[in-house]
Amino acid sequence: MRLSVQTEAFSLGDESEAFAASVPGAGAVVTFTGIVRDNGGALTAMEIEHYPGMTEKAIGAMMDQARARWALADALVIHRHGRLKAGEAIMMVATAAPHRADAFAAAEFLMDYLKSRAPFWKKEIGADGAEWVAAKDEDEAALTRW
Predict the structure, then answer these.
(1) 103: alpha, beta or left, given left = phi > 0 and alpha = psi -120 to 50?
(2) What's the chain look like in SS3?
(3) Among 60, 51, 55, residue whose Cα is nearest residue 2
(4) How far apart are CA 128 and CA 143, in angstroms?
(5) Distance CA 53, CA 45 (A)
(6) Where does the pLDDT of residue 45 fall: very low under 50, low under 70, confident under 90, or very high at 90 and above?
(7) How many domains does one find in the chain?
(8) Range of the domain at 54
(9) Mean pLDDT in the chain?
(10) Nearest-angstrom CA–CA distance, 22 and 130
(11) 80-105, pLDDT tens digit by residue?
């Protein structure tokens, strides 16, 4: 498993290819990349804060849980922090498994966790000012299926 919390942009193609090459016996590789939404042109940037060490520990524990629940060959989570512009990649999840069902389920589990439970604080910045992003009911509800 590989986890990276970083400020630097990443290449979806490079990361996907490297991950797939690292799991030659897997029958399925699933990737997902989250993008900073533009919100109809109102968003100038998003600032993401975290506590180093705490964030990695929390996400690592969730990755361990995914490996315990599904037959994963490997998993990858990349999540950025700092100031990001609309359209930039904010995070990536990749899972590999002998069969697609486990790869998809584990990827969705990790994405739902990252969206609602990972210790990141997000502030949207626009022409009218800045506002902290509040938890959304639908994100919380998505966790109930796990």
Answers:
(1) alpha
(2) CEEEEECCCCCHHHHHHHHHHCCCCCCEEEEEEEECCCCCCCEEEEEEEECCCHHHHHHHHHHHHHHHHCCCCEEEEEEECEEECCCCEEEEEEEEECCHHHHHHHHHHHHHHHHHCCCEEEEEEECCEEEECCCCHHHHHHHHHC
(3) 60
(4) 33
(5) 25
(6) very high
(7) 1
(8) 2-145
(9) 94
(10) 41
(11) 999 999 999 999 999 999 999 999 99
Tokens of 143: 């966790």
Measured CA to CA, the distance from residue 29 to residue 107 in angstroms comes to 10
Measured distance CA(77)–CA(62) in Å, rounded = 10
Residue 39 predicted with pLDDT over 80: no
Rounded to the nearest 5°, which phi and psi values hold at 46? -125, 135
- C-alpha span between 28 and 39 (Å, rounded): 33
CATH of the domain at 103: 3.90.1170.40
| Residue with the larger pLDDT of the pair 135 and 125 | 125
Task: Tell me the whole-structure pTM to 2 decimals.
Answer: 0.93
